[in-house]
Amino acid sequence: MDKFYIITNSDKDKNLTITGMITEYLKSHGRECQVQLASRKLNGPYHYTDPALIPQGTQCIIVLGGDGTLLQAARDVVRREIPLIGINLGNLGFLAEVDKQSLYPALDKLMTGKYEVEERMMLTGTVYRGDQMLGSDIALNDIVIGRDGPLRVVRFNNYVNQEYLNSYNADGIIISTPTGSTGYSLSSGGPIVSPGASMMIMTPIAPHTLNIRSIIFPPQDVITVEIGEGRRRQQENGLASFDGDATIPMVTGDRIEIKRSDVSTKILKLNHLNFVEVLRQKMGSN
Length: 286
Fold this sequence. Notes:
Blueprint: E1 3-8, H1 17-28, E2 32-37, E3 60-65, H2 67-77, E4 84-88, E5 98-99, H3 103-112, E6 116-129, E7 132-139, E8 142-147, E9 154-160, E10 163-170, E11 172-176, H4 184-187, E12 200-205, E13 215-217, E14 223-227, E15 237-242, E16 246-251, E17 255-269, H5 275-282
Parallel strand pairs: 1-2, 1-3, 3-4, 4-5
Antiparallel strand pairs: 6-7, 6-17, 8-11, 8-15, 9-10, 9-14, 11-12, 12-13, 14-17, 15-16
C-alpha cells in the first residue's frame, strides 16, 4: 500500500500526537498520507466524516480512536469501498485491533501487503408511517428500537418476511449483525457470533415475559418491528437508533423494516489479535 488516509478522533488523540507519528512514519517511507478530524458532527448526509474529502486512489483508511470511531467512519465512507483499520487509543476493542504498542509493526505490514480483508455485513433500516417513508440509514453493529420519553415498557409487534412472529412488552429490541453481537446485544443476553458470519440477531431488551429469547435469522430475511399501543391505548413515542448514533423518531403504528444492506464494510486484519484472542481477553479467560 502506498496511499493512506487517516480519520482521527481528536478527543482521544489529544494534540494529534499519534496522528503525527503515523503521518511522519508513512511519509518517511515514501507513502502518501492525509488527515481528517472526526470529533464533531457534520451537517448534511454524513455523520462525522466527509467521504468527498478522501482522495481518489486511497488504498487504506486508518481510523484513530476506538470501536465507536470506527463504526462512525465505516457508515460514512462505506460507499467509497476503501478498507479500514482501527488504531485503538482506549480499551481493548473488537473492531480496532491495533494498539499504540504495535503501531509501527502494523504500519510495516500495511506497507508490505501483509494483511487480509474481511467483509462485514451491514444492515439497512427504513422507517414507515403507513405508505410514507420517514427515513432510512445503515448500521454496521446494530439497529435498536426503543422508547423515547418516560421510563416505561413499549409494545412491539414483530414480523419476518411480512409474516407475523410475535408481540411482547419490552424496553426495546436490538437487531444486530455478527459484528454487533459483541456489543449491546451481548449485554442484553444475545449470543456471540463470529464477525465473518452472515446473519441477523434479534434480541429483546428486558422483555416482560420469560419465554422470549434471541432469535437468529438468515441474511436474506426482512425483519419488521412495529411500535404498538401503550397502556389505555395511548400513543407511544419511540426511536430507531443506528449504531447508537443517528436516530429516527417513531410513534405508535410506525414500523421499521430491517434487512441486509447492499453495502458492506471492509476491515483489514493483520492477525495481531484474532477474534478468538480478543474474545478470550474480554471474557477474562486464561
